[in-house]
Design goal:
The complex is a heterodimer. By secondary structure, chain A is an alpha/beta fold. Chain A has one domain: Metallo-beta-lactamase, Chain A. Helices cover 13% and strands 27% of the residues of chain A. In chain A, strands 6-5-4-3-2-1-14 form a 7-stranded mixed β-sheet, with no helix packed on it. A 7-stranded mixed β-sheet of chain A has the order 7-8-9-10-11-12-13. In chain A, strand 5, helix 1 and strand 6 form a beta-alpha-beta unit. By secondary structure, chain B is of the alpha+beta class. Chain B has one domain: Beta-Lactamase (2-Layer Sandwich), CATH 3.30.450. Helix content of chain B is 25%, strand content 33%. Chain B contains 5 helices and 6 strands; from the N terminus they run αββαααβαβββ. In chain B, strands 2-1-6-5-4-3 form a 6-stranded antiparallel β-sheet, with helices on both faces. Chain B is globular, with a radius of gyration of 14 Å. Classes of the chains: A alpha/beta, B alpha+beta. Chains A and B meet through loops of A and helix 1 of B. Bound molecules: zinc ion (2 copies). One zinc ion (ZN) binds next to loops of chain A.
Chain lengths: 278, 132
């Protein structure tokens, strides 16, 4: 299974040259194995992605963690939507009120966007998920609701040999006492336990987090502690704050490494990064 | 052991911030969490007891009406909430194992998650200031 990061910025895309190393595109990662492709989230990192030509591949599955704009703003510019040959599936969290189609259509319809969801020429199927298990080609996937405003899930993707866990927006430390170390009481734990690779929200520094409590995101410290409690082997800190430059991110990460001594591998997620898992 | 649903986790996180005694049970009535004010009511610490089976924690108090008659379990708000998955409220007397008697109101509500499924129940105890 190959994991390629196409967008790791949080909240809003950035274009500053001082942010070009970690990248300015919002949440999107491609997971591929054999002839199957999963697109994790539809942030601005989704633009310019296309199915490989001449391979006969025409199916792609988009897995949305939630419908905040930074996770769906790339959908309108997703090239495979505009090819009638393509069979595209969108999996996204159910809400208690409106259908996934109705909620996605709030963005993919005038006046916010000129094309409506039902006008897309591809074959499009929507799947509402909650705490679900499902299979797509060689992948088995678990989704679980996690702590973040509005219905939001994380994903645990397995190819039978390796596990990639994707939780870009998550605030497990919400509450009076921060992260609960009894893992039964840890949001997202089942998704991340013993994962080979975890991409996790780490928007804030530990100094910033107290003033952002309840906004739905994690500090770098809490993301690392969460990964440690879950026994993760490799952690990618992601959903970088749109105000943090490359230099600031490097500084915050160096400070984290100085203060915390975790034995697993952890690093800042950067756009373009590719990780091969067995 | 798998983690609790986030609806349960968030109820605990909220209970941690409240000054009212809060008890959280699973769908079978086992006590899976109680906050610090509830520790004072129970006379035990969550840190020490951990979760308590329904058989254990339901014997910690006796419930009585104003005349001192024992109340049947089915008339208690939390028992009803677990059974019917509806909110319930009642004022009555509790007698602790040490013989301490106190008038309380109990509000119980079911935790029905996003997927519409019943995940557990919450009981809030209100101490009633009674002149008698
Ligand atoms: Zn986000
Ligand atoms: Zn979000």
């Amino acid at each position: 299974m190959k994991v390629t990061l196409r967008g790791v910025r949080g909240s809003i895309p950035t274009t500053s040259p001082h942010m070009s190393h970690y990248g300015g595109n919002t949440s999107c990662a491609i997971v591929s194995e054999e002839d199957r492709i999963l697109v994790m989230d539809g942030g601005s990192g989704m633009q310019q992605f296309n199915l490989p030509e001449g391979t006969g591949m025409n199916r792609v599955d988009i897995l949305l963690t939630h419908l905040h704009l930074d996770h769906i703003q790339g959908l309108g510019f997703f090239i495979p939507f505009f090819n009638p040959e393509n069979d595209i599936h969108i999996w996204g969290p159910a809400s208690t009120t409106n259908s996934l189609h109705a909620r996605l259509s709030r963005y993919l319809s005038p006046p916010l966007f000129p094309v409506q969801l039902r006008e897309l020429p591809c074959k499009l199927t929507l799947h509402e998920i909650e705490n679900s298990s499902f299979a797509i080609g060689p992948f088995t996937i678990e989704s679980r609701f996690v702590i973040h405003p509005g219905p939001t899930v994380g994903f645990r993707v397995s190819n039978g040999r390796s596990v990639f866990t994707y939780i870009p927006d998550h605030e497990p430390a919400l509450g009076a006492n921060g992260l609960l170390t009894d893992t039964k009481w840890l949001s997202g734990f089942d998704l991340a336990v013993n994962a080979d690779l975890l991409l996790h929200d780490a928007q804030y520094s530990y100094q910033q987090y107290p003033s952002k409590k309840g906004w739905g995101h994690s500090s770098m410290d809490d993301a690392a502690k969460f990964a440690s409690l879950a026994g993760v082997k490799h952690l990618l800190l992601a959903h970088h704050d749109p105000a943090h430059t490359d230099a600031q991110l490097d500084e915050l990460f160096a400070d984290l490494k100085k203060r915390k001594n975790y034995s697993f591998n952890y690093e800042l997620a950067a756009e373009g990064m590719q990780i091969n898992l067995p | 052991m798998p983690a609790y649903a986030i609806e349960i986790i968030l109820n605990r996180q909220l209970a941690d911030c409240l000054s009212m005694p809060v008890f959280i049970t699973d769908t079978a009535g086992n006590l899976i969490f109680y906050n610090e004010p509830a520790e004072k009511v129970l006379g035990t610490r969550f840190e020490e007891t951990g979760e308590m089976k329904v058989e254990t924690w339901s014997t910690i108090f006796k419930q009585q009406d104003d005349e001192g008659n024992l109340l049947p379990p089915d008339s208690l708000p939390l028992v009803r909430t677990i059974k019917d998955q509806t909110p319930n409220h009642k004022t009555f007397w509790i007698v602790s194992m040490l013989g301490k008697t106190e008038k309380i109101s109990v509000t119980a509500y079911p935790i029905i998650g996003r997927a519409g499924n019943f995940l557990g129940a919450v009981a809030i105890f209100w101490q009633v200031k009674d002149a008698s």
